[in-house]
Design a protein that fits this description.
The chain is an alpha+beta fold. The protein has a single domain, classed as q2cbj1_9rhob like domain (Jelly Rolls), CATH 2.60.120. The protein is built from 3 helices and 12 strands, in the order αβαβββββββββαββ. Strands 1, 2, 4, 5, 8 and 10 form a 6-stranded antiparallel beta sheet that branches. Strands 3-9-6-7 form a 4-stranded antiparallel beta sheet, with no helix packed on it. A two-stranded antiparallel sheet has the order 11-12. It is globular and about 45 Å long. The two termini are 27 Å apart. The structure holds 2-oxoglutaric acid (AKG) and fe (ii) ion. Fe (ii) ion (FE2) binds next to loops.
Length: 201
């Protein structure tokens, strides 16, 4: 059902933003009106209890905003995604369809770890299953070989962590006002209403 809704929205004339600076094709969930009713309760009630246990050192227990989007890969558009870390403290990646081949995710070291021999872990997509990982865990997506791949990505953010150091540039953030969650930074505790000017979403 979500996929049908996404396809309708994609074909419509509604104004659309890009999911992030890396993916050219996809849909931002807030543009569909699904952010507050779907993603916020999912994050607060179901994901945070898990991330608090799994990633206490990355703000897994203090998540207070997110950027949720669907990425789309086809043979004629984006086929793969280069190695990167996310603008997120914790990320959830859910596979939404199965009529494609290849395109697996692969994971390497954590952002700050520089090792000469990286061991990559390949993680195939399984319909309806999610992969939870630290945003700073370097990862990418291998090339699609056929079909069309759709994945729901939730970049979850903890202002208490990113207010200290911007995860993208590693410096204390300089803030400018923004609407909504912005990039998950806050000026005051509990008010996610600002964004960072050096951000790469
Ligand atoms: O292609 C994928 O499923 C991964 C997308 C991703 O890593 C991202 O959008 O940050
Ligand atoms: Fe990513």
């Amino acid at each position: 059902m979500l996929l049908k809704e996404l396809e309708h929205f994609e074909k419509s004339d509604m104004p659309k933003g890009r999911p992030n600076t890396m993916n050219n094709h996809g849909i931002l969930l807030y543009e569909l009106g699904l952010d507050e009713p779907l993603v916020t309760p999912l994050r607060e009630q179901y994901l945070q209890p898990l991330t608090a246990l799994l990633y206490p050192d990355c703000g897994g227990g203090q998540l207070d905003s997110h950027r949720a989007f669907v990425v789309k890969y086809t043979m004629d558009e984006d086929r793969d995604l280069s190695y990167h870390y996310d603008n997120a403290e914790v990320t959830l990646n859910i596979s939404l369809n199965k009529n494609f081949s290849e395109g697996s995710l692969y994971f390497g070291d954590f952002r700050e770890v520089s090792s000469s021999e990286v061991q990559y872990l390949e993680v195939p997509h399984v319909l309806g299953r999610g992969v939870l990982h630290r945003g700073g865990q370097l990862h990418g997506a291998l090339s699609l070989e056929s079909g069309e791949r759709w994945n729901l990505i939730i970049w979850m953010r903890a202002s208490s962590v990113r207010n200290q150091l911007c995860p993208m540039c590693g410096k204390p953030p300089e803030l400018v006002e923004d609407e909504g969650y912005g990039d998950g930074f806050t000026r005051e505790e509990g008010e996610p209403s600002t964004m960072n000017i050096c951000t790469l979403t």
